[in-house]
Amino acid sequence: MTTIDTISPATLDRAATHRGARPRRLTAGRVGLYAFLALSAAFFLLPLYIMIVTSLKTMDEVRLANIFAWPADPGFQAWVAAWSTACTGLDCSGIQVGFLNSVKILVPSVIASIALGSVTGYALSLWRVRGANVLFVVLLLGAFIPYQVFIYPLVRIFSTLGIYGSLPGIVLVHVIFGLPVMTLLFRNFYAGLPPELFKAARIDGGGFWRIFAHVMLPMSTPMLVVAVILQVTGIWNDFILGLVFAGRENLPMTVQLNNIVNAAQGEKLHNVNMAATILTALVPLVVYLLSGRWFVRGIAAGSVKG
Amino acid sequence: MATRIRRSAVPVVALSPTILIVLFAYVGTMGWTVWMSFTGSRLLPVNTFVGTEQYQRLFGDPRWLVSVQNMALFGVLFIGFCLVLGFLLAVAIDQRVRGEDGLRTIFLYPHAMSFIVTGLVWQWMMNPTLGIQEAVQSMGWASFRFDWVVRRDMALYAVVIAGVWQSAGLVMALMLAGLRGVDEELWKAARVDGIPTWRVYVSIVLPLLKPMIITSVVLLSIAVVKVYDLVVALTNGGPGTSTAVPAKYVMDYLFERQNIGLAAAASTVLLVTVLCVLAPWIYAEYFRKERGGA
Amino acid sequence: MSCAILSGAVLSGASAQEPLRAEVMHWWTSGGEAAGVRVFADAYEKAGGTWVDAAIGGGQNARAAAINRIVGGNPPTSSQFNTGRQFDDLVGQGLLVDLDAVAAEQKWRDVIPAPIVQAASREGKFYAVPVNIHGHNWMFYNTETFQKAGISEAPKTFDAFFADMDKLKAAGVTPIAWGGQPWQEALVFDAVLLGQGGKDLFYKVYRDKDEAAIKSEAFQRVAATFHRMRDYIDAGAPGRNWNDATSMVITGQAGIQIMGDWAKGDFIAAGKTPGKEAGCALVPGEAGYLMGGDVFVFPKIGGGAATEAQTLLAKTLLDPATQIAFNEKKGSIPVRTDVDVSSMDACARRGAELVKDPANQIPSVNFHVSADTVGALQDTITSYFNDPSATAEDFAADFASVMTAAR
């Protein structure tokens, strides 16, 4: 029904191809193919390599301006500095503050946005509600509209509610802006289930919440996994919402990273900056590497979010 | 019958948080922003109506015009390169190559990272005195230049490179899924007819991938309209105003420059642009088919 | 009813016992700046308060964050702005505390230069505590680098300036340490406008918003001089922070930096004495002291201990001994003309001497126009500077349209 759900998880998971066995002989074409893949891999890996080697160097070595070189004496001093002593202003406690803040923001945001999104998706797909279509279209539009359109009025509303610049405030913002994708994800999933399932549950006398808890939720594990992956990476990588709504005490890691890099005193410590950058990227990278194909599924199912 | 059974108050109650969010956080804020764009609000919102004054100022501001141009150029190049590179990578991976899983992981990992991270890494690599340029020059290639972030005429392309690096893998993943869905029989038939593989890809497979292409374009377009973090981390809009983008214009006038009316006018222009692009798509996807009973 | 009064009394009694907690937002994050803010923090703690430091790197970010919090109803105890009109609307909307009682008690009007008093007041009442005067039209150089390039003293005319830049280039150093961010480029432009254009042109452009003056030949000459500096900067300039540029001069990679006197703090932090290893001179023309500075505003915060904390902080910031100690670290000069500056460095003494004469007190652009006009001017100046083929005439026309729109 939608463009986005045309890519079914089954297609994505199909590992085997239909192109027959791998050719045994190396033709000129195969050589060219591997050359292209190798070059591309180099392009994609280069920034990661440079981040890592720079972070392992001392500043003396960074100054030699040999960005590709492997460090003569690799060490984790820059990592330690980035984690615990890098400064923004008088506060020199490193990027660990941002890490903890990001975790504090992440956990409730992920749980709340998935809870709300799954219930909304369930209600919109299986229950008849007056105006459901309008609601859904507005939500969908919300996923596409730049945050700038909403930010200022939200600042005012939040300040009236007394939650501006607080942890509940930033969590609510993530729930608000995560809602379209989460709803889309679960709506499409529940709409794709066999309708007999729902009808049988109704005939057994199940109510709204009972069917949700006992029939739908147990079947939703794949979607829940996808939703968690999407929200964890999305919320962790957010910059602009954290910048505006989190408040000084809760600045997430991405904002802290940008502050550390730009608030250098005296000489810029590129090795520390790169270590801080890797540390900031680490959580979504680990999620990505552990989740494998699920990550792709998440992208296909709902990365309508920018 | 069934529809009558399904009508109940409980779903409406369950939907009430969503309804509140849609009413206040989406519709209400949008309306407020549009209204503010017609007022003389500066540091704080006020209700003095000034007509289209903010819009006149907006479209008389060279930086806004540059921002819009940059967004268009960035959009075309970013989407174009992502599609081409993503498609080529997907086709290459689809040729029964060794280490497929590893390659897929490598091409897609940048997409897991924050645009801030991407911006900072590429800024470091393109640093003219300590980055790639200096390293390559000291290896003996003295005329080598890779200082795009500091060159007014090239800085936008630096943003494109970083963006493509981050997002090409996304297209690759989507296209690959599409390729794996192509019917086996089609390949057999093509082989029997002796059609060269590249022609099959161009004239038969590519049209079949239309849904993937549309999804990719939609996803990438959203990234284009929202582009902010990447520019902040990579060039901060410079040199001069050469990498200015609309989202940053709004943020600057909203907070630092204390002119909410003007910022709201710029946001409204963005909003209208997005709605114009989306309206036909949403209509086609969500209404026409439902009415047609599909 | 009596219960409410009782609990209120208990609450205020309890809060009076606790140290007065002041959360202060500022953007002082570089070496000298951070040392300066430490002076304030120590002085405040000595006076019996608790200083909660809320530094946010970069003036733009810090001001945006402060405005968000003030507007959002969760204001800090105090927040930094530049001296001028940046906080106009905060006063207009009634969000700031009127400091006139403290000002009268401490006789601020008698000891602070008139343009600064004016910039800190609205309709005759103090709404901000100015803490320093920054000179915006300084040139800092490394005397050792100058000697190596065969330059004996700082240039006094722009002809001499460019001749010296050529010498530096010939000696193999980057002549001008350029910070390629819009606000820094605008700062250099203003310094050239005052130096080469003179006081009258400066006032006509910024105070009177005089279109004819902006399109005049004199203004275009200033623009051309500014643009000519492109020939003397290095490729890494775009986006560079001012303190990174200062460090280029300190380490001898570059010859000279045109910057506000806050740069001096970083020279001191690097062990270079101003007036000796770190040379300082006003931008050629020496048409006056282009004054900027910092103020602290006090958002309305709801009375009680919070207000007491604000009053104590306001007094601490202007305490004469704190003023000297702070400004020594920060690189600026005391905002009070009645303090003894003889313990300060040579450059600061020179600045303080100049400021004693009202004729030399030239208020910077921030005193004249609102924040969004300052921003639009920065856009205009940075696009002009970064475009090699831009003409002074087009620039003047763009500049004029921004200024006339601001009338």
Key phrases:
heterotrimer; A: 306 residues; mainly alpha; 0% strand; flat; B: 294 residues; globular; disordered N terminus
Concise account of the structure shown:
The complex is a heterotrimer of chains A (306), B (294) and C (407). Chain B has helices at 2-6, 9-36, 53-59, 62-93, 100-108, 115-125, 132-138, 155-180, 184-193, 197-208, 210-226, 229-234, 246-256, 260-292.
Description of the molecule:
The complex is a heterotrimer of chains A (306), B (294) and C (407). With 306 residues, chain A is mostly helical. In chain A, 71% of the residues lie in helices and 0% in strands. Chain A has helices at 9-13, 28-56, 59-63, 77-84, 96-126, 132-144, 148-161, 167-191, 195-203, 208-219, 221-237, 240-245, 253-262, 270-291, 293-302. Mean pLDDT of chain A is 85; it is low at 1-18. Chain B has 294 residues and is mostly helical. In chain B, helix 6 (115-125) crosses helix 8 (155-180) and helix 13 (246-256) packs across helix 14. Chain B contains 14 helices and no strands. Chain B starts with a helix and ends with a helix. By secondary structure, chain C is α/β, with parallel strands linked by helices. Helices cover 52% and strands 15% of the residues of chain C. Chain C has 20 helices and 15 strands. In chain C, helix 2 (31-46) links the parallel strand 1 and strand 2. Chain C is globular. The interface between A and B is large, with 109 and 113 residues.
